[in-house]
Amino acid sequence: MHLDTAIGANPIPFPTEAQIVGYCLSLVGVAILGFLLIGLMVMDWQTMILPHSFTLGGIAVALFLVCTQALFLGPNEDEVVLTKHHIQLTSPGGVVDRGNLFFTGPESLIFGRIAAVCGAALLLLLIRWLYKAVRHRDGMGLGDVKLLAMIAAFLGFWPAILSLFLGTLAAAVYGVVLLARGRAGATSRLAFGSFLSIGGLVSALFGNRLINMYIALLR
């Protein structure tokens, strides 16, 4: 007799190959992201420079890991159905598709992560443009935009937004402390990339838990 049947419990589903590979790749991704963020945090604090080899290289590595994970997805895993209505596709052969319009698992995983990178970068570019339009000077460099895009490439869009929020909050607190101690003025520059890296580290370790807690508060 099966042990679960004997004790009256539901059998625990064994993880699929895609889930095992995805978990392992997630651990590898977090380790690589942590290495990159710690390096960028130190470099930006000391030199106010975020090297392309770290930010753009990190985006390339993250997308490679996502593509690798997509290779192991099963036929119906992570697919996204866009419509439940029959659609008709005109083609030279007059083919009619009577199924649903959907993204397969690999498509939704890869395109979703690319969309997260583009969305995070465009959001920070918009903030940068608005700041310059109002203050008539640059508020942040393009390196910060690439850094946030790199975090989105590893973690996704909403964890990247959480990183931005935490980094902005930490930078604001640090700026207030400097102003109160007379060690900075209204036009002083801060190494925002360092604070954004700290936000990325927190998001990588606790991001999903913090996001779920926030969603629970809104319900």
TrEMBL record:
Please give one Pfam family short name: Peptidase_A24
Q: Which UniProt keywords apply?
A: Membrane, Transmembrane, Transmembrane helix
Q: Where is the Prepilin type IV endopeptidase peptidase domain?
A: 114-176
For this protein, the record's InterPro entries field holds: Prepilin_IV_endopep_pep, Prepilin_peptidase/N-MTase
Which residue ranges does UniProt annotate as crossing the membrane? 20-42, 54-74, 110-131, 152-178, 190-211
**A single GO molecular function, which one?**
aspartic-type endopeptidase activity
* GO CC entries: plasma membrane
Q: Which GO terms describe its biological process?
A: signal peptide processing
This one is known as: Prepilin signal peptidase PulO-like enzyme (Type II secretory pathway)
Q: Which organism is it from?
A: Tunturiibacter empetritectus
